[in-house]
Amino acid sequence: MKYNFSLFFFLLVCFSLITINNTQKTIDYRKGNYFVNVLLSDCEVGKDVEAHSFDLRSENGFLLSDGTPESKVFYNKSNKITISVKDNFIYINDKKYLKNKARISPKDGDINFGQYFYQGDFVFVLDHKKLYLMNKINLEDYVFAVLCSESWPNWPLEVNKVFAIAIRTYVTKRAQDAKKANRIYHIKNDNSHQTYRGYKLPNRNYDLLRTAVSKTDDLILTYNGDIIDPLYDCCCGGIIPADIEGKINFKKAPYLARKYSCPYCKKCKSYSWEVAYDVKDLEELLDIKNILSISVTKKDKAGLVKEVQVKVSGKRNKHSNIIKLTGDKLHKYLKRIKSFCYSIKKQGKKFVISGKGHGHHIGICQWGAREMVRQNFDFKQILTFYYPGSKLSLFPRE
Ligand SMILES: [Zn+2]
Questions:
Q1: In principle, which of 100, 242, 343, 375 could form an S-S bond with 257, CB 3.0–4.6 Å?
Q2: Of the candidates 161, 141, 137, which has an alpha carbon nearest to the alpha carbon of residue 151?
Q3: Ligand 1 centroid – CA 376 distance (Å)
């Protein structure tokens, strides 16, 4: 075991120390186990940047190391630890830490960060003027935790098996991207990737979700031997993905170019929806004054809005009183629009937007998959329906 003077000195000053033998660590990093580095937070660092801090809590204290296999591990019995960053240095409980990586594990149990509880370790890495806070967690525990966030309470086992495979495949694909791009984390914790809010969420059937993970243990989806990018969303609204233009490169991802519609989500609430905006609210949200009308002027073959024109009273510029927006931009500004397939009409002092589906219309339609289970399809048939040409394969463990 290599002697680490700076870490030892730092910890000697700040804690009453108990050195723990490496074999007592909470996570088993042996070959064959696979761990996911989930980005929970990051912040800029540097001379002109404000200090940031992160509070971690764990009932029976923490084990600290620098994350290298030869590192000594120290026990801090306090149930709270504060990691901060200032002037390009990491501080642990206000004491300067001289390395750029710190691994913090719970002595036992879990770590509470913000409002959520996490299994696994927390890893802080200072790299290129940024501090990354990651949760290093066993792959199957991660799949379970994301299932707690992304699934729906009280849905049956079979549909959760579908989601577990999609979640496992998605993170494997992102980890593959991370390796290619030399990215420090594998995946983000928000819905730009997969929503991950720890593993203790209320009103979840933990046993059923754990079973969905264990019954699909190691299964991922591939297409011609490559791991697929298994997009999934709430409700497709009956849109045919192959007709969607400009969002997905279907040559790279032919398994997302489903040529037939999903008829299974028709009874779901989000299949068709309507929201209304007061003209005043709309003007504020779009930062456009004196709106007379808004109309959808271009759609793609699938029916997704490509262009919207906003007509204003008086001339917006020298040439016209029309402002053009992309469909994506309107979707971004008006958060209550649930999908990219919609129409707009004016009713009195309101604009009423009616649409189909909830999400991006590509990949698994969650409500459709739920209905397919009701109609006795199994998880393999459902995955083949939503990702045509894909196959189930085993996770590539080294
Ligand atoms: Zn559907």
A1: 242
A2: 161
A3: 16
Question: Each residue of 136-182: pLDDT tens digit?
Answer: 999 999 999 999 998 888 999 999 999 999 999 999 999 999 999 99
Q: Which residue has the tokens 């990354």?
A: 132
Please, which residues have CB less than 5 A from ligand 1, an ion? 236, 262, 265, 365, 368
CA angle 135–127–19, rounded 5-degree value = 55
Q: Give residues with Cβ within 8 angstroms of 96, minimum separation 6.
A: 10, 89, 90
Residue 139 and residue 117: Cα distance in Å, rounded?
16
pTM exceeds 0.85: yes
Residue with the two structure tokens 């500004």: 333
Taking residue 16's Cβ as centre, other Cβ atoms within 10 Å add up to 10
